[in-house]
Specification:
The structure is a homodimer. By secondary structure, the first copy, chain A, is α+β, with helices and mostly antiparallel strands. In chain A, strands 4-3-2-1-5-6 form a six-stranded mixed sheet. Chain A has a six-stranded mixed sheet with strand order 12-11-10-8-13-14, sandwiched between helices. Chain A has a four-stranded antiparallel sheet with strand order 21-28-27-24. In chain A, helix 14 crosses helix 15 and helix 16 runs antiparallel to helix 17.
Chain lengths: ~600, ~600
């Protein structure tokens, strides 16, 4: 093991060798995704910081790590203050640091790990930004893990619902209508969706980290090591998909000289846009043509989601029935409880992995929105406190994500926690029950989930809902339910989370999360337009000990009772007999 | 009077003289506002169409008038089908017509009456767009009315609250911080606000149609005919404001050569941006520096709004008390009722004019959102129907805008109308009562007002709320409460309307509108951030005969009763004794 100081020293020597004074290193990799494989954990290797977002600025004498509010504590704990200054990325942004501390310097960067927009924000700050041909971290990272090499596998039609040929034809039509010759698919989620392939390159998202070119005739070039594609995969891909080595990608872009080529600025590395321009192609910035079709699950995917959620409900309800007994004893910890839930999920058919590391937070840890219990932070779950468990799974037929907040007992909860839980639940129900006309987007619905808290002068500092893939990422665009989400009209088949919360720092956290699927609403007499509604996919009882029934409207109480009755009827018969007793109690009318 | 055919013929001859094949004529004038003076009613003169938005495309053989959905019927009634094709501006957009019918032609336009963005939409359509030095309509419009020439007058400090010097200093600071040397104030609303001047150039908005240049030292050049500025106005403007003839504006732009000059693309004619570029200035597109400060009324303007609304309430309640007696007799018409309300308003102190032509619609006319009764459409208000009256006034201390929907009686209303009225009222109350954290914008609150209708599969086809000026325009940006409004965070002092509705074509219309003012909310225990709430400015009873009390939640009923009690307490003492009896009944608890 090298020391953090020697790593930073080696990097500075490499920067000098490459002829620059400093370096900008974000957490993202060449695929710009939320998760990166071990080979791309450059920021963690260099700084020690393991959070999911951050940016390092290495200068000749100083080095600064920028992280957002979620990660200020973690960055302080994981990095050496003698080597790294730590700054809040919003309050003390990198551009300010460049202006003040790097004016006139040559700052290197790897054009594969930034979008053009992210570079633009940094480039107005007075330093000279210099693209480097190779990432200098890779040159000095001696024990760097190998890049992902596991084989890619077909995602069968019985889960995908549409053949790759049908999808390619539909995506090609989008290009034809826009007068574009090709599209760069820089986002591996789009490649996975379009070609019905899945992989194991990341622990929680079944991706193959690969990119592709889509032609306006529906033809695709997939840039993937031949060794990762066996006979079965080649047969699955068929004639319309040509397999090319990853290092042929640049030449393929060069061959687009003179052509109008679609690029999605949000998901495309700067390297690609520049290479296209240099080649004399005409970049046409627009939405990745797979993004919206991917978000709107087809009927087979919709049924898959329902089936996956039934299996997930079995595991979660078994966990809850166990937890009610175990928690008051105080013998479990955050890590042991999460491990139990994972083991119960793993018993289900088609289970592949957790869809993200479970957030298992007791008491004050529940107030840390992105808490992750580690051996260093793990603590017993104690009697008479709130406990928050946010978790999910990847099943071959669907992806789940669910949060429940529980009262450990055996005593009654304080009035404040029950009041907050009830307000959060009322907001959660308000969103789950809304009917809305076509054209309404997530940002327009966000306030419905917040209003009960707003009435008390309270709020939560995260979005209300995010999109979810179909055996793909647990965070999927383009739609979301928050004030900062793009105003993308909600469409049938989209799956979004409904997860309002309330957090009192140092004391407790509350979050209640179900997944909702958009579907056409039944017609009402006199209605002159098409309405949509949500179908609730997640099935698990709420924590009745935290519900103040007299704070609910008759409609809210009626909806919760009906939901509980549905959970009991649909999941009860799937449970081991022992757990059915608890479920019956948990689902009795309020 | 010339005939529509001869006007079109004369225009075509003039186009030939100016060397173009066709012409694009929007309804807007050189100030791009919602209302235009008679001298700028070019579209009405040419086509006969008098609506507030539209675009004419004149080609050698054909001529097309494009209007939006509000105006399709009116355009058909007002124009000659032998001369004018009528098209829906969204469904059959002008760019399509240019592509299909004007490819390769030279199409003239007046660069003063388009923004650059609006031209860009038209220019990709395959014709050659040719800016003309003079508007060809003006050359052939023989009896064109003279341009506005009434004197401009000071808007006294007791209404404006801030001196022009203080406003100029604050606006200049915005330019300094942005590194801009000057800003073009192309919007007369900004000129009026910044310099505390008002005029009579338009019937409903007390504007002086003038533009100005603001310097980063706070100095202003106001481009206004010297004959419109008397001694008192010159004294009011003071040393920091130089009066220049309007035709010196181009030269003033030329003098900005080399300077960074702010332009608001939304409100600036293309002519201005181009002249600046030609002069070698650097246009910096950004928000008009007066726009947000103007929207956030200062404490004096806030008190003015309250006082204006009290006087407006007196007039409206006197009208309502009279209407309840008059309506069942069937002797009044839409026009006579609106005239009575106007006359009652005119008795109030500081009354200047209606803030827009009142919308007075009985029965099926109530379903026409922008209905305007004319001698041709006027009809009696009959017993037992719904009647909608949307009206407002310009007082020197504030602008009002209020809608009430009434049941004429003497019979009871049909269940359907009462159900719809109750749903609209519930949405109206939901918006009026929301508390929300700083940062929330209008588009995030729109759904609150619609949800009771959405629950029944119903909706309305207009925004829920628009901004209102302080003795300025009844429609004022930048904030609005609708899905299509910009996401501008609401700020204390903004005044917005709350006007959900429901319309059944051919049958009846319902709209309920109050004005709301944003203000800081009282702190709640445990709250960790600043919240805002609305203060309701408008005071007039709702139509209790249309309220289904058992459809209200206890909170809704409580709010309506408290509102009615406030109206009775605050306005009762200001009424003639005869009207107090009706008000007491109208404001009794439900």
């Amino acid at each position: 093991m090298t020391s953090p100081a020697s790593r930073l020293g080696a990097l500075r020597a490499e920067l000098a060798r490459q002829g620059v004074d400093g370096f900008l290193l974000p957490r993202s990799d060449e695929f710009l995704g939320e998760y990166v494989p071990p080979a791309a954990e450059r920021l963690a290797w260099l700084t020690g910081f393991t959070g999911s977002a951050g940016l390092a600025l290495v200068l000749p004498e100083t080095a600064v790590l920028f992280v957002d509010g979620r990660y200020t504590d973690q960055a302080a704990a994981e990095t050496d203050p003698a080597l790294w200054q730590r700054r809040h990325i919003i309050e003390q942004p990198p551009a300010d640091a460049i202006r003040a501390e790097a004016a006139g310097l040559r700052l290197g960067y790897d054009p594969w790990v930034h979008t053009e927009a992210s570079l633009e924000k940094l480039s107005a700050a007075g330093a000279e930004l210099v693209p480097l041909a190779t990432n200098p971290v890779d040159a000095v990272w001696r024990d760097r893990p190998p890049p992902p090499a596991a084989p890619a596998a077909p995602h069968p039609l019985r889960f995908a619902g549409l053949s790759p040929a049908a999808k390619r034809e539909a995506a090609a039509k989008i290009l034809q209508e826009a007068g574009e010759v090709a599209a760069v698919l820089a986002d591996p989620h789009s490649v996975a969706w379009l070609l019905n392939i899945r992989g194991a390159d990341l622990p929680h998202t079944p991706l193959v980290l690969a990119r592709a070119l889509l032609r306006d005739d529906g033809g695709v070039e997939l840039f993937l090591d031949a060794g990762r594609a066996d006979e079965a995969l080649r047969a699955h891909l068929g004639n319309g998909v040509a397999l090319r080595p990853p290092d042929a990608f640049g030449a393929a872009l060069d061959a687009l000289s003179g052509a109008r080529v679609r690029l999605d600025a949000d998901v495309t590395p700067a390297w690609i846009a520049r290479r296209l321009r240099t080649a004399g192609a005409e970049p046409a910035f627009g939405e990745d043509p797979c993004r919206l079709p991917r978000a709107c699950k087809n009927p087979v995917e919709q049924d898959g989601a329902r089936a996956a959620h039934r299996r997930d409900a079995v595991a979660l309800i078994r966990f809850l029935a166990w937890f009610v007994e175990a928690a008051p004893r105080g013998t479990e910890t955050e890590i042991s409880a999460a491990a139990r839930l994972r083991a119960l999920r793993a018993e289900g058919d088609l289970f592949v992995a957790e869809s993200f590391p479970a957030i298992s937070g007791a008491g004050e840890h529940g107030a840390v929105v992105h808490y992750r219990a580690t051996p260093a932070t793990d603590r017993p779950i104690r009697p008479d406190e709130a406990y928050l468990i946010d978790s999910g799974a990847q099943y071959r037929d669907g992806t789940t994500d669910v949060t429940r907040t529980l009262w450990t007992g055996p005593g009654a909860p304080p009035a404040e926690i029950a009041a907050r839980y009830t307000a959060v639940l009322r907001g959660h129900v308000a969103l789950a029950t809304v009917r809305f006309p076509e054209g309404v987007a997530g940002p327009h619905l966000d306030a419905l989930a917040r209003r009960p808290l707003w009435d008390d002068g309270l709020d939560y500092d995260h979005g209300t809902g995010h999109g979810i893939g179909s055996f793909l990422s647990v965070h999927e665009g383009p739609a979301g339910i928050s004030r900062t989400a793009k105003a993308i009209a909600l469409r049938p088949g989209m799956i979004l989370s409904d997860e309002p919360g309330f957090y009192r720092t140092g004391a407790y956290g509350i979050r209640i999360e179900n997944l909702l699927m958009v579907r056409p609403a039944e017609e009402r007499p006199g209605s002159t337009r098409r309405f949509l509604r949500f179908e609730t996919l997640t099935m698990a009882p709420y924590e009745r000990r935290l519900i103040l029934v007299d704070k609910l409207t008759p409609a809210e109480r009626g909806w919760i009772d009906a939901y509980h009755a549905r959970v009991a009827a649909e999941i009860g018969p799937l449970l081991p007999r022992n757990d059915t007793f608890w479920l019956k109690e948990a689902c009795a009318p309020l």
